[in-house]
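Re: thiamine diphosphate structure - here you go.
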Amino acid sequence: MKMNGARIMLECLKKEGVDTIFGYPGGTVINLYDEIFSFKDIHHILPRHEQAGTHAADGYARATGRVGVCIATSGPGATNTVTGIATAYMDSIPMVIITGQVPTALIGNDAFQEVDIIGITRPCTKHSFLIRDVKDIALTMKKAFYIASTGRPGPVLVDFPKDVQIAQGEFHYPDTVDIRGYKPNLSGHPRQVEKAVAMILESKRPVMYVGGGAVLGGAAEPLTILAKNLTVPVTTTLMGLGAFPESDDLSLGMLGMHGAYCANMAMTHSDLIIAVGARFDDRVTGKLSTFAPHAKIIHIDVDPTSIKKNVRVDLPIVGDVKDVLTKMIKQAEKNKDKLAAFETALEPWHGDINAWKEKHPIAYKHSNTTIKPQFVIEKLRELSNEDAIISTDVGQHQMWTAQFFKFNKPRTLLTSGGLGTMGYGLPAAMGAQAAFPERQVITICGDGGVQMNIQEMATLVQNRLPVKIVILNNNFLGMVRQWQELFFDKRYSSTCMELPIDYIKLADAYGAKGFLATKPEEVEDVIRRGFAEDGPVIMEFKIAREEKVLPMVPAGASLNEMVLNA
Amino acid sequence: MQHTISVIVENDFGVLSRIATLFSGRGFNIDSLSVAPTNEEGLSRMTIVTRGDDQILEQINKQLNKLIDILKVIDFSDGSAIERELALIKVAAEDDARAEVLRIVDIFRAKIIDVTPKSYTIEVTGNPVKIDAILELLRPLGLKELVRTGSVAIGRGAKGWNG
Ligand SMILES: Cc1ncc(C[n+]2csc(CCOP(=O)(O)OP(=O)(O)O)c2C)c(N)n1
């Protein structure tokens, strides 16, 4: 049966199991939208800004593990997606971004709303395609989804010219795809696995350092089993939170710039670091020359370019982290006879760690007069559902969430780690809520970042997506203010949000509910009332204005040079 | 250290700019780059001469391998490849200098491909060291224009890149 290219595109999405897309219409996708109008198998959500649509697809992908899909028109629509694409790229999130393009005959002519979006996004996409012929749509989409979701995942952009959407063709979706230049190595080498387990059994002060790769690779379960079987302590990066239960005694919490004292001390004193799907980012290592000076390093990652990029590695294992960890569990079982002696040998190490934990736990000073942001996070944890999904924006509130919420399950924290994109939290929560209408979805934002995509309140209300928006309002661009306080003599250049916003009226204007807490004793009540609402809600907390995120490793300092209370 | 890498790529839209973006975005150097189709339909071969310490070269290799359109990255360690480059050189040649140029051309088994009363244009092929050497001798006579192709490289022995 013949159909137009626009319809073929939708049939491809259906074949890929896509149930929800986020998109914004315009001249070069109007044909696609004409087909969407009558295509009932896919739920289309109209955000109020293409950046938000891209973040929503990203939030959908992070919460579900499936490929997030969004659509934008050519020109300004396409350029509006760039921040969202770069955000997804830095955190290796599987996405397919479909952009309209001017008709093929006009490409290169500076036609109306033409931009070279493939050129613009080349450094922040895993791959991209320009579809030049209606015959190529199906194979291109098959490749796009395959590339986005396999190996180290990432965003793939498909540029879809208007004339190709109009042209008539047959629809045949390929069952399999073979790309000569793309063969991700998924299976960890058995020899390397043997060596890794042998190295662990010889170590006295091992730490597992776990990144977002463990979440993306679905490796939380084997990770937890392996760590517990071997009694090896686990620290995670911001992106790795949830891969290992923070409620477990072996958990050290998050490491790095705002990580736990015990985690950073453990890295500094360790004799063996087992890195799992992590990339030794500068926010984690601190000063490289003094990073983990006594440790050998085992690095497990599906992406060979992550290995030995920043630090020397003694034993690389390229492969899917789930596969490698599962093999390691089996290999450890083969060494059962050595386990008892190994665990005894670790006792002094556990002693050191417990001492560090007690000496400087993640903590804050409670106040009876002003609301401490950490207190709000603790209350949110206490009062939210066990399977709640939390997204954050970027800034102090993000770090407080990472420190105080205590994540126990993978894919329950959605946060922009690599790019640190303000404006991410609200639309990402929207995407997660669209994927899981029945789950509790909470976004925790600052008063700066929430305004970067506040227009999505309209999308939430229109689509009955009951996201709970928490605003920790310090009337400051808090994280930058903190740096100015510590390193720039309190010269608060352009970080004071001088115009107070009435968020309650704002919620009302969008047809949502708003609740405000100004005193500590109101916090719990506001959260309870907010959670009890069926629809989207803003919960605003006027927090201690100059509270700092601590501890902190100043940029460029060593991990063990933490500012504990400034 | 200079280093020669061959990459076999799909003849796809945008491949060259993907590679260029990779090098510029990550601060890798390209000393020379040449590209042309191979004997296999749809495939081109690029020869890239780059520089860096071992860690950088390892990253370059891995990052190239990661690009979807690249089928194979061949990293020629010392002596494993035969390298050739072609140069076209326009040199001033009047009076006594004319004989001197001809002598140099002869020694290097180069060719004169264009002559005017004031100049010679020379074609020379060889490994890049040889080309540097002839240039050094010609430079004092007055180089007017120089065009080099950049190296191309092929592995020694009976096997092709894919066996
Ligand atoms: C798009 C974007 N612009 C600027 C920054 C730099 N930046 C990082 S944190 C921050 C302050 C965020 O303030 P707010 O949203 O109020 O959160 P708080 O730190 O107060 O919790 C800024 C400006 C950024 N990360 N992203």
